[in-house]
Amino acid sequence: MRCTALVLLPSLGTAGAFAPSVPPSVASRAASRPSTSLNIFGDLLKSFGGGGGGGDGGGSKAPANPFGKFAPPVPGESCTGEKITVVGSTGYIGKAVVRESVRRGYPTVAVLRDASKGTNEEKFAGAELKEFDVTDRDACMKNGGGLFEPGSVDVVVSCLASRTGSKKDSYAIDYRATLNVAEAAKAAGARRFVLLSAYCVKSAERKDPYALQFQYAKMELEGKLRELSADGDGKFDHVSVRPTAFFKSVSGQLEVVNGGNPFVYFDLGDGKCATCNPISEPDLAAALIDCVASDDHRNAVWNLGGPDDGLSMIQQGEMLHEVLGKEGPPKLLGVPIGIFDVIIDGLQWVGDTFKSEWFEDAAEFGRIGKYYAVEDMLTTEPSEKYGRTTLREHYAYIAENGQEYDPYTTVFGSADAKKEFKKEKELVEA
């Protein structure tokens, strides 16, 4: 696999200080298009003992920044040529990370519990698929046949996340399974572990009374990564990337607004509502892969949002109304935030009274919903903003092309509504 020192996409130009982020249709075409590369540092790499193949399989590695003082890593473009493995690769962000890793020129392995689910996934084109159950710690750590053969991986990017956010799932996936992968990676000689974490983990760190189970699970996992990085002679380190929110998480009401119904937001009183600067799928994937070559966030946390200034839920509703071309003033419905407390308290009472795990989980799901309705997911420092795609551009794209239904990131709408919306758009185009 060739290491792409600098990728020039004719329609996009170079990335400069930001990742090359475009609406999904363009990104998909760019990912499948052969790269136009200027490998001007090829001979220099060879002189340092690096190279485009990621070593001979015996553990030799290119340094984190193989160009050293000659050229710093370029966000959205740099490639060290090392061997990358992505776990949690079938998720919303995991698929994008695999595609971005391959696009850069990295030899890439995508780990899936069921490899058959990845054979027809276009985002896995160019990657090797490996079937493995990372929840099985003994299997992960097995000598000679575990998750990683010695010297087979240089950097692991983990996009593992529990789908529900319940306590049981959070500690099984966000903590235990992710730790299995990190320990196996270190044992196999990997030099870095890049974790897709969450901006909201700060609530667990502050011990907020409303902090969530998955936040505590990720916080404890990050603590274990610090221990693994401190134990030894510096040959293993980590980066924890904490995104604010995904575009998909703030797009669920597209079909609602398109149908003439009001955009629902949660009223915190005095006209206030939650604010965020979400980040696009390709931008976040590029940032995660940047962590392979860059040491800027070595053994640290990188809070990360998109290029927008903070957008309130009201502003998001107004933007959807405008992008969809609806007439008249935007229809907005403010729901008092106190309604969450009534629902959560009722579910928790039933769970406690009847020792019901189902109702306890339902109460936790209610707390998750309230958390994102109350807390700002917002970065303001320039170093914590990344990418080019704005939320308006994303809304314009899905207003034209529709979007896939994801019950784990969509609070409003339904699978049927999203299918009907896409069908209507296809009929208009026909």
Instruction: Report the portion of residues in β strands.
Output: 5-15%
Q: Which percent bin holds the helix content?
A: 25-40%
Pattern of helices and strands: EHEHEHEEHEHEHHEHEEHEEHEHHHH
From the spread of the alpha carbons, the general shape counts as globular
Number of separate strands? 13
The main sheet comes to: 7 strands, parallel
Report the average pLDDT across residues.
84
Helix vs. strand class: alpha/beta
Number of helices: 14
Strands across the major sheet, in which order?
Answer: 5-4-3-6-7-8-11
What is the first-to-last residue Cα distance?
A: 41 Å
Protein described:
The protein has 430 residues and is α/β, with parallel strands linked by helices. 39% of the residues lie in helices and 12% in strands. The protein has helices at residues 24-32, 42-47, 92-104, 137-141, 167-187, 201-206, 213-230, 254-258, 281-293, 313-323, 338-354, 357-374, 391-401, 415-429, and strands spanning 7-8, 36-37, 84-87, 108-112, 128-131, 155-158, 192-196, 237-243, 263-267, 275-276, 300-304, 311-312, 332-336. The strands form four sheets. It has a seven-stranded parallel sheet with strand order 5-4-3-6-7-8-11, sandwiched between helices. Strands 1-2 form a two-stranded antiparallel ribbon. Helix 5 links the parallel strand 6 and strand 7. Helix 3 crosses helix 9 (281-293) and helix 11 packs antiparallel against helix 12. The chain is globular. It starts with 6 loop residues before the first strand and ends with a helix.
Salient structural properties:
12% strand, disordered N terminus, 14 helices, alpha/beta, two-stranded antiparallel sheet, 7-stranded parallel sheet, 430 residues
